[in-house]
């Protein structure tokens, strides 16, 4: 078993609000091994993005911290690439130039011009987007743009890939195709991946481990489920696999329990004054 690659220890995240400190996360402890694919799942507003932002170095924990390869994470770095739900490509640059921007940032000094060109094409090919290299993001579909976002992240050769609902906005077929590509690429590159998802099937299919978070405020790790299914994984054959069905039920059970708690709290307390309105926990039982 490989050693710990990334470690969160005693992480607390308190946000300043007009009504005082809002403790979003409390005592998050997590050890992740090199090459592990970890999904974060939990109800809306529980703090998944906050965890990801701390690992990305975009937020600083108010207590505890994050250590990657023995170094404390204090700021963003190219060894941790982030893929957001809405690709976040530069609309005025072509598909090629969007990837090039990231590659220049990381490899300007270490790769020659031709090597960089080949590397950009290689990454576009990985996600089947080389044919659209000269198109702008507005000229390709949402799924294609998302693939470019993934190529851009992979082209930085990140040792950690952080994904915040990367396939959330895509139709089912595109989503399935990208999930399969991601599994293949990750097997090949052995990156450590942390992915936020609301989709239970996606979490079980892709992950080595599913971290289920309790409801906020003061959210923490509720359950840590290891998905011991052989790879490569095939969604069609897995659908009837009793182990797969068991894992899926475990996650659903956890989420329904937490959902019941949310409903219980909201029936007793009509308002949650601490959290901002757009982040009030919502029922997402259908997809979560
Ligand atoms: N800058 C901030 N200031 C105050 N509160 C914040 C801030 N950022 C996040 N929060 C609160 O922290 C909690 C966790 O937010 P976060 O976005 O991490 O949740 P999430 O699980 O990713 O939600 P979702 O699934 O809806 O994306 C929420 O209650 C949110 O309102």
TrEMBL record:
It is a peripheral membrane protein. It is found in: Cell membrane. Residues 6-240 form the ABC transporter domain. Its main location: membrane. Pfam families: ABC_tran (PF00005). GO terms for molecular function: ATP binding; ATP hydrolysis activity; nitrate transmembrane transporter activity. Residues 263-288 are annotated as: Disordered. The keyword Transmembrane does not apply. Keywords: ATP-binding, Cell membrane, Membrane, Nucleotide-binding, Transport. InterPro entries: AAA+_ATPase, ABC_transporter-like_ATP-bd, ABC_transporter-like_CS, ABC_transporter_ATP-bind, NO3_transporter_ATP-bd-like, P-loop_NTPase. One of its GO terms (cellular component) is plasma membrane. Residues 263-281 have a biased composition (Basic and acidic residues). Belongs to the ABC transporter superfamily. This is Nitrate ABC transporter ATP-binding protein.
